[in-house]
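Task card 7
Instruction: Convert sequence to structure tokens.
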Amino acid sequence: MTKGFYQLTSGILSQTKRLDVVGNNMTNLTTSGYKAETYTDRTFQEVLYSRVGNVDKSDATVIGGQSYMLAPDTLYINYERGTIRETGLTLDFAIVGDGFFAIQTDNGVEYTRGGSFCLNEQNQLYLEGQGTVLGVDGQPITLDTDQIRADTSGRIYTEQGVYQGQLGVYVFADNQQLTKGESGLFQANGQVAQLQGQPEVAWKSVEESNVDMLQEMSRMLTAQRNLQSGAQVLKLYDNLLTKATTQIAQM
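Output:
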């Protein structure tokens, strides 16, 4: 009977983790460049069951297996492109195809699809709260003014046509090998970032989050129902064991 506690408790923890991921997705529904996450779990410690004789137990026959609990497995990130939305702001950029903007942070170079930039005190193109935006030369992009124009390759000019720099768009061999840091930006995780040869960048636009609100609501309701059901059955197990131990003590 006690093995049911392992199954129910691990199931409750799994559904709680799933609710955390769904809640994070819904919180970032309006975050530009945000990529939706999906949580998966797996069975843990598969145990084989064997049939043996009453006296001679040497010739065991395997008759099946069972798992005692669930364990966290993988947090998948959906890298599909979100909708490109025009903002009219001169420091907003969106990558139309594959790739990431490179940001020089305190933890090194990290990557993002979010292109809602501003200027810092040094007139460098800056991602708020994160770091400076790097150009094709791997250096921060410094602008003389925020009154700029840009072409579809990410080259930035003043309104008078003075070249200021070009946004670096970097690609990886396998996006699923990237890791998401505490800041929400992506880390290369040992992969080599390659400069995109012919990037396509939309100016005065940002890429919206690719979170599907209806899908997240469905996942949230499913996880909540599973969590409530598990808690109710766990309470029944507790009552049964309490009753059993009480009766044994009275014998």
